[in-house]
Specification:
The complex is a heterodimer of chains A (about 110) and B (about 120). By secondary structure, chain A is an all-beta fold. Chain A contains no helices and 13 strands. Chain A is globular, with a radius of gyration of 13 Å. Chain B has about 120 residues and is mainly beta. In chain B, about 0% of the residues lie in helices and about 50% in strands. Chain B contains no helices and 11 strands. In chain B, a hairpin with a 5-residue loop joins strand 4 and strand 5. The chains are: A mainly beta (about 110), B mainly beta (about 120). At the A-B interface, strand 6, strand 7 and strand 12 of A face strand 5 and strand 10 of B.
Chain lengths: ~110, ~120
């Protein structure tokens, strides 16, 4: 199974500052046929359904604010929130959908400092 | 608007069985692969199973294969998860999830999630 490892487990960021979450896959999740990394980022707030933010490692889902961005380098992936808003306090998960069993990172809790 | 409404969660004894349902609306159900994902209280997300848009292909998390069976009724836009030989470690919130790209089985991300239905396995 592909293991997804996120860091840090939690972080506290001041409003308006940048938050950065890292995710590393234990195996390559790039398909050569389309040169895409099969990685998503989700936001999960208590009592709500998880929300897709980013897919193909760096493609923003429709309706997601442009302060959210994803980047990739080999098997290392990053979710950045450029200017943290109060409503961004949540758990964030990365997930690979390259091959079954699809696997998630353990989650990163973002809090407002 | 896409809606996924799970039901069927309950308190069940170890060794028991349960079937979860997911009623889908707001999209052409039989065009999309569907998934079940679970979350143990206080823990992270775990993918459980997928079934292709046509119901022909299904995959399971290794630890669940043989105990859980996913199925769908495209005529009624419904997804199901039959769970047998339930264990205490199966206690979780179970989410129904829609794939993003039509007619795609593997390599499709998770676009929409339901609110989940709670399964509690306890004696």
């Amino acid at each position: 199974d592909i293991v997804m490892t996120q860091s840090p487990d939690s972080l506290a960021v001041s409003l308006g500052e940048r938050a950065t979450i890292n995710c590393k896959s234990s195996q390559n999740i790039l398909y050569r046929s389309d040169n895409k990394n099969y990685l998503s980022w989700f936001q999960h707030k208590p009592g709500q359904a998880p929300k897709l933010l980013i897919f193909w490692a760096s493609t923003r889902e429709a309706g997601v604010p442009d302060r959210f961005s994803g980047s990739e380098s080999g098997t290392n992936f990053t979710l950045s929130i450029s200017s943290l808003q109060a409503e961004d306090a949540a758990l964030y998960y990365c997930q690979q959908y390259h091959s079954t069993p699809y696997t998630f990172g353990q989650g990163t809790k973002v809090e407002i400092k | 608007e896409v809606q996924l409404v799970e039901s069927g969660g309950a308190v069940v004894q170890p060794g028991g069985s349960l079937t979860l349902s997911c009623a889908a609306s707001g999209f052409t159900f039989d065009d999309y692969t569907m998934h079940w994902v679970r979350q143990v209280p206080g823990k992270g997300l775990e993918w459980v199973s997928l079934i292709s848009w046509d119901g022909v292909t299904s995959y399971y998390a290794g630890s669940l294969r043989g105990r859980f069976t996913v199925s769908r009724d495209n005529s009624n836009s419904s997804l199901f998860l039959q769970m047998n030989s339930l264990r205490t470690e199966d206690t979780a919130l179970y989410y129904c999830v829609k794939g993003k790209v039509d007619m795609t089985t593997i390599g499709d991300c998770f676009e929409h999630w339901g609110q989940g239905t709670l399964v509690t396995v306890t004696s």
